[in-house]
Amino acid sequence: MGEKGFYISKPVGVVAIILGVGALATIIALSVVYDQEKSKNNEVSPTNGGTTSNPITTPTPSNEPWDKYRLPTSLVPDQYHVTLWPRLTRNETTGLYIFTGKSTVEFVCAEETDLILIHSNKLNYTTLENGHSARLTSAGGGVAAPSIKHSWLKIETQYLVIQLDGKLVKDQRYHLYTEFTGELADDLGGFYRSEYTENGVDKVVATTQMQPTDARKAFPCFDEPAMKAVFYITLIHQHGTIALSNGMENSKSFPIMEGQNVLVTAFAPTKKMSTYLLAFIVSDFGFVSEITEGLLIRIYARKNAIAANQGEYALNVTGPILKFFEDYYNASYPLPKSDQIALPDFNAGAMENWGLITYRETALLYDTEFSSNSNKERIASIISHELAHMWFGNLVTLRWWNDLWLNEGFASYVEYLGADYAEPSWNVKDLIVLSDVHRVFAVDALASSHPLSSNVDDIQKPAQISELFDAISYSKGASVLRMLSDFLTEDVFKKGLSTYLNKFAYGNTVYTDLWDHLQEAAVANSVALPGTVHTIMNRWVLQMGFPVVTIDTTTGAIHQKHFLLDPESNVTVPSEFNYEWIVPIRWMKTGNPQAQKWLVKKTDTFVDMKTSGADWVLANLNVSGYYRVNYDQGNWDKLLDVLNNSHQVRHKLCDMIIIRTKIIKTVLALDTTKYLSKDMEYMPWESALDNLDYFSLMFDRSEVYGPMQAYLKKQVTPVFNYYKEITGNWTKVPDGHMEQYNQVNAISLACRTGMEECQTLIKTWFSAWMSNPETNPIHPNLRSTVYCNAIAAGGDKEWDFAWKQFKNAAIAIEADKLRSALACTKQPWLLNRYLEYTLDPNMIRKQDATSTIVYIAQNVVGQSLAWDFVRARWSYIFTQYGGGSFSFSNLVNGVTERFSTEFELQQLKQFKADNAEVGFGSGTLAVEQSIERTIANIKWISENEKEILDWFTAEAKP
Ligand code: BES
Ligand code: ZN
């Protein structure tokens, strides 16, 4: 290992001498970035502040503590005092934005050691008076601390490594002090910058995104969720700006530093918390606030957004949602304030930093003039999701990332409960079936799926952690917890939760700790179960996939089978439970709910499910269980009959439309769409459309497309007319939330299937807007679909107009509608030009790049263009946009969604091989899933195309 201190690589060192010492700090920051790019996989040998660099040592596959991604258990942090100074102006010489910082961490030595490992990434350390990049002292008397022998940065595992001359003493406390510089880059991770223009002035915000492993990019820290500590944060910032962090701003002073008049804001110490939940923000934002039952609630955003009252809705729902969760958890909100802030650049949708939740603007800001009911619903649910984390995740935190599914799955389930409390008239609780259960069925039905639970040892590197933020963790997690709450009853579920949160407050857990508490609550309340919470839930958590339960109502025989999209696909991973589940079955007979049953083995017979005469059975009511149901043909026929004739039960049946699978014949499934022309309700339509979307993807380049469009046009026409009538020829908005949604479905499908009246309507609206850009006559609910269809029907004039509106939009929610609609054009040259824009941050913000490429791929004309584009630029996209969250797996899945030919499969495999070196990061699994999905699609088409073509052709006839 090399020398102590920080390092400067040779070329940069030489430049530093030429430019003089003044520029040194920023040059160093540059060198950090430079070296880390250069040596992604190599060890960098630090030098002692000199101008030469040691030769790069080849990485020996050694097994030193610093080669491991997990921290040793020898040191336990207790508190940090961190001062950070982000510079919101570009350094003239280097052209970089930077921040500087000082940090003292107080830790306890739990096991004697002569090694300090602390996470640090892309930070550059100042050499202190002792000649090292850190100073170690003993805290609160005791024996003097040993001196530092060597210190260096271990790039691959992201550590500052400090070797000591002697041992740290067990149970003694120490202070480790460092001074450092980092780049305030526009990379959406760690301490980063966000930029926007307001009233002609360019502005910069310094903000953070730590989860999962980027706190170490802001200051050296023990960056694991179980290493909880108390944080004393201080921010130095310019006059005219405000500083925010997890704690309340405590004191302000106005010193002169480095010749500048600055503001110093010190924050109240945090509670004991994990590093990934920290946040620091410097901005010139405005805010709105209220005090509800003694709690300060504030919503921050760009001044113009606050002036336009765009923070009001968030402010209005936060109080009620917090109150809901206080009651749900039976625990009061743990902090003295709740801040939420909307940022112009933000990678995920929102982040649950404790006491200072960050959002992208579209997820927090609401404007009556611009936002649709769908935008409003998203805001309510996302706020609810993040507030749910304030207890579940923040107060009590999973010990390691392998249990991430419980954290995210839980919040993804209860977000519906909180949003429902805030907006009871919307009935959002029903939507989980479509948005989570059905959505994740598609992924979890692949042989390349994976269990909810991962082994601790399999999740080590940051990329492995990032990969866990997928549909399985979120949507399957939400689905199985909903099922659990349902069979325990909500009351018992809440009781168990409450004791769990109480017991582990400010601590860490593993997922079985929650099972323990739920089990206790189940016993205390005499809930009859066919096993313990552990034994039942193990089946759902430890094995991938889900069962299809088949009920033969002629005999009452029932059996379960692992449901696979392609039944011939090979499940290579064995399961200790043989892919059998313990299945709770809520059911009804001919409209009458029956007592819940449990299927605990592969096959069984439930005599009361045997029917005679006109009686029928419907199982898995409300899709409260995470499984599919199939019946004998006779029962299907009766159910179809009910669908066609009885309104009341119809919405309970939306799981019937299981078109893509072999469990029922495709045409039987298609038969279930025949009644749609008589149905005006959202749930059945949305469910059908979700499934029919798959047909569009598979067939929009084939001969099936024409007859299919004709059939759908026929089905949607009465619905279109219905909405035209109840809205007084499109002059009013339908009353209910769901009706508003279905109006959009009606217009969107009618226009998409070529209904002339619809197309004329939207063209008229759009050209009215074009001729008078100041007044947009299109209702916000309808904008996305109107923009898309108008741009699809138009040429570059329409496109350029929409682009201009996109660039000038005063609210991100409007910009987003345009951004997706711009991908609807049928002109290849416009699509290609748009693709080029996606990788230019001046045109499309980095946060939106991958989703824009996916929008383009969703367009049948853009599909192959987007695929070519992604293939050609993979390594650039990967290095520039590869960090963080789900966007990467979304990109891979998105551009390959239509794949259904041998040729496309070959291309995909080639793509995988060609980029093995570069890698796929958090999109790794998505590549496998895409390959498997393509294989399943090829098979499905070859087996069904003919029949489907005939069916649509016959049914399309007037
Ligand atoms: N903790 C996540 C944010 C996150 C995601 C951080 C991925 C790092 C990587 C947050 O609680 C979350 O889940 N946000 C969701 C919104 C939610 C409503 C599903 C998001 O960002 O989309
Ligand atoms: Zn979450």
TrEMBL record:
Keyword Transferase: no
A Gene Ontology biological process term: peptide catabolic process
Domain (Peptidase M1 membrane alanine aminopeptidase) ranges: 313-540
Topological type in the membrane: Single-pass type II membrane protein
Entry's EC annotation: 3.4.11.-
Molecular function terms, GO-annotated: metalloaminopeptidase activity; peptide binding; zinc ion binding
Stretches assigned to the Aminopeptidase N-like N-terminal domain: 76-277
Keyword Nuclease: no
Cofactor note: Binds 1 zinc ion per subunit.
Transmembrane segments: 12-34
Site (Transition state stabilizer): 474
Record key words, sorted: Aminopeptidase, Cell membrane, Disulfide bond, Glycoprotein, Hydrolase, Membrane, Metal-binding, Metalloprotease, Protease, Signal-anchor, Transmembrane, Transmembrane helix, Zinc
InterPro entries in the cross-refs: Aminopeptidase_N-like_N, Aminopeptidase_N-like_N_sf, ERAP1-like_C_dom, M1_APN-typ, Peptidase_M1, Peptidase_M1_aminopeptidases, Peptidase_M1_dom, Peptidase_M4/M1_CTD_sf
Chain ranges of the ERAP1-like C-terminal domain: 616-933
Necessary cofactors: Zn(2+)
Homology family: Belongs to the peptidase M1 family.
Oligomer and partners: Homodimer.
The protein's name in its UniProt record: Aminopeptidase
Organism: Myripristis murdjan (pinecone soldierfish)
Encoding gene (name): ANPEP
